[in-house]
Amino acid sequence: MVRPSDRSCRLLHDGTLSGAETALAGLAQGWEPGFAAARTDDGTATLAVWLAWQAHEPPIADVIPVLANLGLRARTHRCLPSRPGPDGGMATLDEYHMIVSPELAEAALKQMDGLRDILSGLALGDVDSDSLDSLVLTAGLTAREVRLLRTLFRYLRLAGTSLGGRYAHRVLIAHPSYAHDLVALFHARMDPLRANPDNAERLHAALEDALGWVTGINDDTVLRRLRDVVLAIVRTTFYPTPDSAPERIQLQRTLPDRPAGAGHAPSEQSEPAGPAGSAGSAVHAGYGHGYEIGGGAGDALAFKLAPAGLPWLPRPLPEAETFVSSPRFDAVHLRGALLARGGIRWSDRQEDLRTEILGLMKAQRVKNAVIVPDGAKGGFVLRRPPADPGRLARLAESCYTRFMEALLALVDNRADGETHGRAGMVCHYGSDTYLVVAADKGTARFSDLANQVAAANGYWLGDAFASGGRSGYDHKALGITARGVWESVRRHFAELGVDADREPLTVVGIGDMSGDVFGNGMLLSRHLRLVAAFDHRHIFLDPDPDPARSFEERRRLASLPSSSWDDYDRGLLSAGGGVFPLSSKRIELTEPVRELLGVGDDTLPADALVRAILRAPVDLLWNGGVGTWVKASGQEHASVGDKARDGMRVDARQLRCRVVAEGGNLGLTDAARVEFALRGGRCNTDFVDNSGGVDCSDREVNIKIGLELAIGAGAIDRAERERLLAAATGDVVRAVLTDCARQALALSAAERHVVTSADGLSRFVEHLVDTGEIDLDVETLPDAEELTARVAAGRTYTRPEIAILHAYAKRTVAHALLDSPLPDDPAFVPVLDAYLPVSLRPVLHAHFDRHPLRREIVASQLTNSIIDRVGAGFLHRLRELTGADTVQGARAFAITGSLLGLTDIWEALDTHCLGGDLSGGGPSGGISGGSGGSPGDGSAEGSRSRPAVGSSDPSAEALLHCHFVQEEAALWLLRSRRSLLDITAETTRYAEGVAEVAAALPTVLATVGSDQELTAVLRFAEQLYERGLPAPLAERVAWLDAMSPALDVVDVALRNDLEPSDVLHVHTAIGTRLGLGKLGLAHLIGRGAQPPGQSRWEHMAAAALRADVARARSALTEAAMSAPEFDPDAAIERITTGARADRVRAIVEEAAAAPRLTSAMISVVASRLNELVPGR
């Protein structure tokens, strides 16, 4: 057996047709390659080809199709006796004769190198041959150039364009000049030695002219899209570069050789079967020879594209795309931005790999809104997977490794803070240094392989390239994804008046205990009653489980090296339970199971039983598996794109669970989530529920980058780095779970808010559409007509839709912040410090200012705080009402959050919502060398404040209350400060005075405030406390509304050199005497509300009039405080008595009694108040 590096096939000739003996003699003299051709009397030519072989000789059935694809039809064949070769081994010689045209014979003699390259692959077991090979002779292309065209076609096919099959091949074959110029255009753009923009422009024009002569629309589409792809390529591995051949990653094992005598595999088609007489056959002689994993996954060709130049691609268009193809695998990597991250999956979708990855990238983009990078996704598919499991696994590792090598070959590197481009590579895109991958389906154990590739390439991220390896945080050991999902479950049930940690929940699930998300998730509470579950192997039924005993059995299964539902102790199942193969033709249902599922059949096929489980009337449906199981009733199965689950999928309207938790991706379609939510079900989205994993990975990467800076500075060594990473596990887990809980709470607050402000949010959506940030069809969001119909029916945006809007708001805000100097503001140094794990701050603080993603981290953290605390439309409303742009609005958010003490309140809400065991421990501590307790001990049942039985948790209401107060304060600040807000200066200016107002407020309100206002504050605090909020937090939230005028009060004090407490006294007394306290309470009831159908202008007018009322009250206060021989009581008496004051009181009384404040009412109140201001 020869290795692929050996020359095991040579072409031999002596220039005549009788040269067999000479050819054999040539074998002994050094394997001189060639053919021979001669004219015949009938005007044709006879072409002879001799192929010499050592060791394994391919069968004729493998050779003849390859010759046919070259346009050479073999007429005769004979096998000549074996002869000794130059290395002493025996060689055999095959002789093929073909009758061809003289022109083709001449072309064959001219293109011997191309023919030799193609035919030599037969002995290497690495032939990927089809009808495109004929272009070697008709278009004068090399074998490698033909392979380039084949790769372009494979890209088109996997992109879902249906243009990669035999018809498309025939189109290009029929236009050999176009094929030649297309390849020439590729060289003119990408060849480091002959790239020529002028030549590329000339060739582009020539191709455009050639397209003008193409009459068929389908032919034109094929040729035009090939040209489009060539023009969209910005980098490629087609040409060797000085650094394109790093030391191969050796895995210390080889694939077993093919069994002796097995010969070559029968020819397999690499294209859809065409009609009889179609141009050529698709042939692959593959997997025949053994090869080392590190060196034989085929010669992968890769190119990076700018998809913006391919408008015919399905939406959304990635920012950057990499396609990799070899005879053994295809792979695609899509990035929403150059700074992006996401998992790499081993796919089984050979026909629509890019479609699958595009859907996952779309979900990853919104999932990554919580972290620094944008979303990315990659996947590879084996073109001809072997049946043997061991060979399959090793081949997958090999192809994954080649995929990683190709990805890294197309990005730049960093060293000493500088970007280093790829030597010898033409790059039409700007610098591209950040590439991070993660595990996904089928690649959970591949992170170390990826990091070996990064190390071999000297890639600057080192083992941060692929998170979760041997020196990273083990997601399954930490249970981080499942624990993040549980925060969503907690939030859902808290608002239903159920404590998910302490009360029994009936559950059906997708997955088994060996899985990460399912296995860890089913161990987060000892009170879960898992009554049914299924995975790709079994169906599990336990209609009336004992929570304690079943919990222990699930924990036992999770602790096994590998397990399935078939390992469940049958003696622990309740009456009527069982475990059944998913392959069962029919399954007998016991009476308890029929009652559980609400079905009347005595037996059901396995797929029907799965559907019945999904439709079961339970508390929780926990998706911890792979596949799309729920669609909307208006969707066809074919549109879901998951054919394997078509027979088991149900409609969302059939679900009878109260809550859906999405630990797995794409378990429900977007439309299904909306349908479920519109029918009263509670769900978020997959990218919200399972964001814990990506959050953890991103923090790991950024921490590792920081620690490398510390190593470079000599502050720590490599061993200390490992110890510090392990020590930070608990801090990282707490930060991740806090993010998860905060996102869920933000959706609850927004869900409450949108009930009365749908029009305001819809205007934000219109803004996103107008700026091209969002496509309503792609994101399955309602248009204006549908939203109007919903509002008329008493509905509005659903929770899953709000989640999408939050994600897009985060993306747009983060981009705006990064395009400004704001992340460099010294005021945000504490934001960067807060991002660091507490245990690492002493080490990293001095080095993080050199972190290459420092600005991105600040922008991401600030963006998350804005959207999670005050909602997706907050900054847009500030823009509408004041003209402030996103950056100015963010400055106002930071200032008011600090001055009003909202930052402390938010952190207290986070702590209240989170609770539970936040240790970083897992079965293996979550990181190499770590230690800690298992998350699988029901430890979610930590001590937390408990609401009264049956009452819903008030956290969302409290957060929304903070939002309203902050919005008023931010509006005041932006209206009163027209210049760019200086965060540090403004905070310093107001901080002391606001603190004095807060301290004086209870006394002032008790002495000169209205009884109604004080009673409202105390009653609100009591209600929050009774529903579960800790007393100190409840009181702080309740007093916030009374703090609304604090900035105005302090501003008056500063302008007039007065004590803020004195100004507060007068301001409150005037409001009380004129009855404005009643108006304030009425306004509080409807604050943030916008009546359905209210136009943008009406909304803006109402806001401006409310500001007029506040300004008039402030002016009255300032007039009283600035009176000669100041006597507060006398000044208050003077301003609030008389006919004009009586008119104010009367109109305020009438407005306060109205069901809803209107712009007209506010206008009259403002006018009456202004009449009281001296000089007006």
TrEMBL record:
- Give start-end positions of Low complexity composition bias: 272-281
Q: Name one Pfam family in it.
A: GDH_C
Q: Gly residues compositional bias: what residue ranges? A: 920-936
| Record-level GO BP terms | L-glutamate catabolic process
Q: Per its UniProt record, what InterPro entries does this chain match? A: Aminoacid_DH-like_N_sf (IPR046346), GDH_C (IPR048381), NAD(P)-bd_dom_sf (IPR036291), NAD-GDH_cat (IPR028971), NAD_Glu_DH_bac (IPR007780), NAD_Glu_DH_HM3 (IPR049056)
Residues forming the NAD-specific glutamate dehydrogenase C-terminal domain are: 796-910, 957-1170
- NAD-glutamate dehydrogenase catalytic domain: which residues? 297-749
Q: Annotated Gene Ontology MF terms?
A: glutamate dehydrogenase (NAD+) activity; L-aspartate:2-oxoglutarate aminotransferase activity
Q: Which residues form a coiled coil?
A: none
- Region described as Disordered: spans on this chain: 256-281, 920-952
PANTHER family according to UniProt = NAD-SPECIFIC GLUTAMATE DEHYDROGENASE
Protein name listed in UniProt? NAD-glutamate dehydrogenase
| Species of provenance | Candidatus Protofrankia datiscae
Tell me the classification of the organism that encodes this protein: Bacteria, Bacillati, Actinomycetota, Actinomycetes, Frankiales
